[in-house]
Amino acid sequence: MTLDTLLTRAAGECVDERERYLIIFTQGANGYVCKNEGVTDEAQALFHGTYRHCQIWIERRGIAAAMRHISQHLTEVPELSDPSLGPAGLVEHLGSLPG
Predict the structure, then answer these.
(1) Which residue of 69, 77, 81, 96 is 20 to 30 Å from 40, comparing CA positions?
(2) What is the pTM of this model?
């Protein structure tokens, strides 16, 4: 597998996870997060906070899904399976964007 393929698949996992949630506004910039399943009752809320904090709550789940995918398939990408790469090198490769 190529690095680009791995990152594209990880990005897809991120989007899929983020789309599992909705932010519902209450007053001003406040709101809550619920599952994207049609039930948007505040009593079912998974998180309460400002709109920004709700976004962060969802984004973290998306990032975690992407990282899980990368972790599961890391050894399938030759340039990432080099043991001498180290954590900083790995993060640098993962943070690269195609031109």
Answers:
(1) 69
(2) 0.87
Q: Which tokens belong to 86?
A: 């180290």
Pick from 7, 13, 15: which is nearest to 97 by CA? Answer: 7
Sequence-distant (6+) residues with CB within 8 A of 10 are: 66, 67, 69, 70
Q: Enter the tokens of residue 56.
A: 């962060």
Residue-by-residue DSSP string for 41-82: -GGG-SEEEEHHHHHHHHHHHHHHHHHHHHHHHGGGSGGG--
Q: How confident is the prediction along the chain (99 residues), in pLDDT tens digits per residue?
A: 999 999 999 999 999 999 999 999 988 899 999 999 988 889 999 999 999 999 999 999 999 999 999 999 988 998 888 878 888 888 888 887 776
